[in-house]
Design brief:
Glycosyltransferase, 9 strands, mainly alpha, binds (2R)-2,3-dihydroxypropanoic acid, disordered C terminus, 3-stranded antiparallel beta sheet, 3% strand, Glycoside_hydrolase_63, two-stranded antiparallel sheet, 21 helices
């Protein structure tokens, strides 16, 4: 079914949608986009079936944008000159990174199934192979722990190209099936996308019915294990749990002493230049945490909360969890599981309160918080804008965030940099200390549209199109040059090309925000 024909979430929830989004269109600037790269994949081998499926959906996209009988010149240029090859490469990339029911983020660098990568990648699969998309989530949840936690990495098959692998999380003679930590809970957001836009309703209903209790259990785990003090916001205990591994937000909290570590070899540096990866000192701290958790027995997650020397309220995790709660609520209503709506509403209520402590009125930004000292981490990072994606910021807060965001974007040719480019900690190549990440651009852009900032959302969309068109499916991008960095043929960049950049908002992932209007009632001026 075409996105536009689908009953709106607002109808389903009795008008609870915060704001509907206008479609982002290719702008005239993109007609002049110079493609300077050769395709990352030679001999493109997308199957005719993949291609037909994507083509059909793309045509639908173009018709829904132009609302006319034919395609406009801009649309034709956009479609034929800029995006056709990247979309075909994206499909091919997912097929190549498919190791049988799960998609690795990139060969060699990340040879297992990563939690938030996979949840995003499922949305990419959904664009051309829905059954495979559901399988991605099924396989991810096959690694779910009994207590509800979904681990950050599931080690389905052995690999020698990654450290720390299953024998470090477990023992050499008894390798672990997964890590003992988690990652941002994207699954409900992706599952809603699959369910809402399905062309195979029977399959979607069956899959969603199986998946719903597992996702619900994982959200319950977050609140039980990571918010035992009822703060309304959850804690991460390792920078790897944030997904933003070496964000400057962790610098002060990562000053604890390094333990006497067994000798280790960084395998990531065999695949990516050291200037684009976390430093040795940062890795020593990562491993200190890993070995301490192992000594405490990972399985006692409630104990870990109290013993970890690193305990942060992370903006990325909490914004995603908040937005995922909105989508889980939407799914609960669709599946007739009204009994859990009240529980989710309580999480949302408490979340609105919890986020208040993370706001700094003076700088007009949100910050992560060190739960052990109570101090806000003073680093201005792109995670500061993710409360827009959650829909937890007030209209005034959104205006201040946008003021900051405009300034950041005026200081680099390509946005959104992961750290304020004027901050001394900004490093344009080093992983989460400066580079642009397409998935973060998607979340920020989505949030901006909901708050009515269409112009700046369009700018971020255009930058994302330009970066992927020119540099290809890289892991992240230098905001100063647009050059691709990190891993090659990266699955979630491909998924974003398919599920966001190639689609109108009516059928792109996360196009509508739903949920109770708790905040709107407090702030009646928020655009609807
Ligand atoms: C890595 O190894 O870089 C990962 O981000 C850890 O999950």
């Amino acid at each position: 079914m075409a996105g536009e024909d689908f009953p709106s979430v607002g109808d389903a929830l009795g008008g609870c949608v915060i704001a509907s989004q206008p479609a982002l269109a290719p702008t005239p600037a993109l007609q002049n986009l110079k493609i300077t790269r050769a395709p990352s994949l030679e001999n493109l081998n997308t199957t005719p079936k993949d291609r037909t499926c994507w083509r059909e959906k793309s045509l639908r996209r173009l018709f829904s944008l132009s609302k006319s009988n034919g395609l406009s010149k801009t649309e034709e240029a956009f479609e034929d000159n800029v995006r056709v090859s990247i979309v075909e490469e994206s499909i091919e990339c997912l097929r190549r990174n498919d190791l049988g029911g799960y998609t690795i983020p990139a060969h060699n660098l990340y040879p297992f199934q990563w939690n938030w990568d996979s949840a995003i990648v499922a949305a990419g699969w959904a664009v051309f192979d829905e059954a495979r998309a559901w399988e991605e989530l099924d396989t991810l949840f096959s690694g779910q722990w009994e207590d509800g936690m979904v681990p950050s990495i599931v080690f389905h098959k052995p690999s020698t190209t990654y450290f720390p692998g299953p024998e470090i999380w477990g023992l050499p003679g008894n390798p672990s099936r997964s890590t003992g930590i988690t990652q941002p809970p994207v699954a409900a957001i992706s599952a809603r996308f699959l369910f809402e836009h399905t062309e195979n309703v029977k399959l979607a209903e069956k899959k969603m019915t199986d998946l719903f209790p597992k996702i619900l259990a994982s959200h319950r785990w977050w609140y039980k294990a990571r918010d035992p003090e009822n703060k309304g916001v959850v804690a991460i205990l390792h920078p790897w749990e944030s997904g933003m591994d070496n964000s400057p937000s962790w610098d002060a909290a990562m000053q604890f002493p390094i333990d006497n570590l067994p000798p280790y070899e960084r395998k990531d540096l065999h695949h990516v230049n050291a200037s684009m990866r976390p430093t040795k000192d940062t890795y020593d701290h990562y491993l200190t945490l890993l070995y301490r958790f192992k000594a405490e027995n990972f399985y006692d997650s409630e104990k870990l909360y109290w013993v970890s020397p690193f305990r942060m309220t992370d903006l990325c995790t909490n914004s995603i969890l908040f937005r995922a709660n909105r989508d889980l609520r939407w799914l609960a209503i669709k599946l007739g599981k009204d009994d859990v709506v009240k529980e989710i509403d309580e999480w949302l209520d408490r979340g609105f309160e919890g986020f208040r402590q993370l706001w700094d009125e003076k700088s007009g930004l949100y910050y992560c918080q060190d739960q052990l000292t109570g101090k806000l981490a003073d680093a201005p990072t792109s995670a500061a804008f993710l409360p827009l994606f959650a829909g937890v910021a007030s209209k005034d807060q959104a205006a201040k965030l946008v003021e900051n965001l405009r300034r950041w974007l005026d200081n680099v040719p390509f946005g959104v940099p992961s750290t304020d480019p004027k901050d001394p900690r900004f490093e344009p190549l080093r992983y989460w200390r400066g580079p642009v990440w397409i998935i973060v651009n998607w979340m920020i852009c989505n949030g901006l549209l909901h708050y009515g900032y269409d112009d700046i959302a369009q700018r971020i969309y255009d930058d994302s199109v330009a970066l992927t068109s020119n540099a290809g499916l890289k892991e992240y991008f230098d905001p100063k040059t647009g050059e691709g960095c990190g891993g090659e043929l990266f699955s979630w960049t491909a998924a974003m090309c398919l599920a966001w950049l190639d689609r109108p908002n009516a059928i792109s992932i996360g196009h509508k925000m739903s949920g109770p209007k708790i905040h709107l009632e407090q702030d009646s001026t928020l655009p609807r």
